[in-house]
Design brief:
sulfurtransferase activity; alpha/beta; five-stranded parallel β-sheet; DsrEFH-like; 20% strand; cytoplasm; Hypothetical Protein Ychn, Chain: A; 4 helices
Length: 126
């Protein structure tokens, strides 16, 4: 089956994003197709490279990056939601020399989410 995962919870403070990550790993282990993960609302905070994880906790941001690197899962971030929450690309705000969007995530719009839903058998929201 083909899946798209929609993450609306922040990286830390709720279980949404960590549960979504574990679900994505399970899909891959069970040989399903994970088309993409779309981060929306507070979920865009998963793409903030500045997040600092304590050494005794699982680094969820790094987990998403490894999912991208090892399994070529597309990680899309809603542009509007990201801007509202201060997650920006390089030079997208005049006073920033470097943005805080992790290079493994791509800014996109709801059109990309619509396309992902169209080509998927299931969409799961966390």
């Amino acid at each position: 089956m083909n899946y798209t995962v929609l993450v609306t919870g922040a990286a830390y403070g709720t279980q949404n994003a960590s549960t979504a990550f574990l679900f994505c790993e399970s899909l891959i282990k069970m040989h399903h197709v994970l088309n993409s993960v779309f981060f929306y609302f507070d979920g865009v905070l998963n793409a903030n490279i500045i997040n600092k994880t304590p050494t005794d906790e699982f680094n969820l941001i790094q987990g998403w990056q490894e999912l991208y690197e090892k399994h070529d899962v597309k990680l899309y971030v809603c542009t509007t939601a990201a801007e509202r929450r201060g997650v920006v690309e390089d030079n997208s705000i005049a006073n920033f020399k470097k943005g805080n969007l992790s290079p493994f995530f791509r800014l996109s719009g709801l059109l990309e989410l619509g396309h992902a839903i169209y080509i998927s058998d299931r969409i799961i929201q966390f």
